[in-house]
Amino acid sequence: ADAARVPALVIGSGYGGSVAALRLAQAGIDVQLVEMGMAWDTPGSDGKIFANTTSPDQRSFWLRTRTKQPLSNFLGFPIDKDIPKYTGILDAEEFSGITVYQGRGLGGGSLVNGGMAVTPKRENFGAILPTVNADEMYNTYYPRANAGLGVGLVDPTWFDSAECYQYARVGRKQAQRSGFPFVFVPDVYDWNYMQQEQANTVPRSALAGEILYGNNYGKKSLQKTYLPQIKATGRVTISPLHRVSSVTPAAGGGYAVSLEQLNTSGAVIATKGVTADKVFFAAGSVGTSKLLVKLKATGALPNLNGEVGKGWGDNGNVMCGRANHIWDPTGSLQSSIPCGGIDNWNAGGAFAEVAPLPTGIETWASFYLSITKNPNRGQFTYNPATQGVDLNWQTAWKQPSIDMAKSIFDKINSKEGTIYRTDLFGVYKIWGDHLTYHPLGGAVLGKATDNYGRLAGYPGLYAIDGSLIPGNTSVNPFVTITALAERNIEKIIATDF
Ligand code: FDA
Question: Is 222 helix (H, G, I), strand (E, B) or coil?
């Protein structure tokens, strides 16, 4: 039978995919937006759409039978537990030397992330995307992304007295006493809503520990920004629980796209074919890389160039905790949304978010997620034996990140007379060096693609997500992913349609 035909098909509904779908539809082009995760629009048996971090259930993890929480231990005890296998929201995808956390569902990573919405310092941009015109980015596309995402800043006066940011004020005081600049970090959380949470006049979300498995109220994920606009165009067909398994040139022009429809246990319940004139890969750095590497190796897209799969980095992520003195409590009520960081990027190669430990009890712990200038880059390759895609990252490649993070925390510990916590990632383990939240690269701009994301070898195929960025953004990445997508889609709509 003749497969359906669409002018444009977008694979994945995170930042890149949402920008592409919205701008194409606004330009009058019909789009099919394919997302392998769920729509996340229906409450569970507890009346809430998303599960809390303190009580993970089947909604929490993508097709796992046991949770794999980023902080695996509490007071030295392992905290993971069995759960039913389900198309849940957070994927802890395990490669040989690293676990890559990613969001699954309509809205991609925006469903699970901390919402920290940081535009890199202009002086660092040349190292992030060397072939992109910085004037255009800082005059047009970063502002467009910030507006579209609803980025805002905590009110500094409220911050100074809010109980839920005691942990961040301790972080600020200690950073400043050691001579490091503390900077407020913008976020897409609704700050007015958070003030009402603190005042106990609305249901709590950030102040109830919601984050990794979704926020039920205050966070402006893509479900509250780009996705409603996408629906309002009337031109976008959204297909949740559909996974793209193949893309190959179609006989009559365009591309034949194979889709697998999943049930909530992850089983394939139907396979479908669509022919698309143009296909946008927005499955995230890992998802896009895995598809492209496999399609090249298996002969579906043999003319992709040899850069596909290369240039992958972890944004230098590394975590650690510090034990404070008894007179420096960090608070039993902690907002799950971080709002400040310690900037030692130029001197020490590290930008450390002062992160919460929303356990509900006083822990006297300060917790940090550092983004570092780690130079190591991995590569995805096809493995014929497993018919899967491997990543050659090694855990030891995090050592530069640890050294850079120590440029901040060794100094603070020495100034404060404090020590590292050793009970958060195992038994006597200081560094959370086993994971990243910020996968970047694998279809690098100007290498696997031209300077606007057009994939080499195949007119009408594009990468438009975190895979374009070569491994590091110096800050949290989603504003840069969004801004780059806004830049690229504008050019593509103007010249390719
Ligand atoms: P993204 O990963 O968002 O979307 C890809 C989508 O494609 C997913 O929904 C996926 O299910 C889908 N997909 C994959 N393969 C598919 C296939 N074959 N077929 C169909 N669909 C497919 N960043 C930041 O700037 N500030 C922050 O505070 C944080 N915090 C944070 C916390 C945690 C826990 C995580 C996991 C991540 C963050 N991040 C973050 C990172 C940020 O969320 C991430 O960089 C972006 O979501 C990446 O956007 P993309 O558009 O590249 O892909």
Answer: helix
